[in-house]
Amino acid sequence: MKAQVLFSGGKDSSLSAILLDPFFDVELVTCSFSILPVGEVAKVAADELGYSHRVLELDRGILESALDIIIDDGYPRNAINHIHKTVIETLAKEDDVSLIADGVRRDDRVPKLTDAEVRSIEDRFGVSYICPLHGYGRSAVNLLVGRYLVIEEGQSDSIAKADYETELRELIRQQYGDEKVLEIFPEHVQSRVIRRV
Amino acid sequence: MKAQVLFSGGKDSSLSAILLDPFFDVELVTCSFSILPVGEVAKVAADELGYSHRVLELDRGILESALDIIIDDGYPRNAINHIHKTVIETLAKEDDVSLIADGVRRDDRVPKLTDAEVRSIEDRFGVSYICPLHGYGRSAVNLLVGRYLVIEEGQSDSIAKADYETELRELIRQQYGDEKVLEIFPEHVQSRVIRRV
């Protein structure tokens, strides 16, 4: 059975794919709002991992709604969760999708669906939504990353990633300038997969 | 690296072991308070799965504390969680244990450690605690169980299991009689692994 794994090119989504690989036919899916070439960035990492990969092109209006939310809030949580929920619903509506996975881990706060949102998506669309790392803490993730991946880590603005934040930051930059990006997004270490061990 | 997987002989702990198998050296661990031969019951299922198995003999005092809690409360949650936490701490103290896993899944309420309890155990004992099924809902679990396991399901009192409840029910029965068991434990479908597919 095929598992669609939401893929940013970072360590968590990569490790989620590796954990599912023995049990499912993994297909990596990267979302893009066509603001930046995030699909191409993710494709490089996907090729290194050796999994098939596709780009899910999404309506730019979703990102613009998220922009309204984030400017209103002054912090990213609700905007990122809005994108995440919309992405999973979009994927769940596709005809041949029955299992969607993402890299959310135990200690993550964002993006994260509520239990009610997960149940609603599973019931409405007849899909299973799984988070292979949800029961893994930092030490267990680091252990597996060290064993299976070579990664590069750095501040968000210095790492070429394909997560929701990347294009959202760029949209804020285009419309409100660099200072607004720095004001809204706290310093945050991101990872990018260089290759598989 | 070895993973100690808490094992009741049911589908969730069996499936957790199967999910970890490609990445860790799985050892199944069944707790016993020497009230019933739960270690032997679990050993039969472990042999069917093909994993090494050991019985962790625990002080009967732990079960007696749980009995006090359950009689006081009139419902099982706190008593079962008390046993679960004590079992994980006992295992975490062992010299050669660095990774402990159990079969808790997304929709489980009991037994379940709080986030603070998990962090405390990981910090104090230098272990990683993981729940491979924590990000899996009912439909995904059923899918994998159907593919990898043949199970028997039935009400708790008709299924030979090796979970905490089994010996706790027996202790209640011995000290307070059958009616008290029925009063405290709601009807609940349990599973037992018959063999691996």
UniProtKB/TrEMBL annotation, chains A, B:
Q: Pfam families this protein is in?
A: DUF7411
Gene3D superfamilies with a match to the protein in the record:
HUPs
InterPro entries found in the cross-reference section: DUF7411, Rossmann-like_a/b/a_fold
The record ties this protein, via NCBIfam families, to: PRK14561.1
Q: What is this protein called?
A: Asparagine synthetase domain-containing protein
The scientific name of the source species is Methanococcoides vulcani
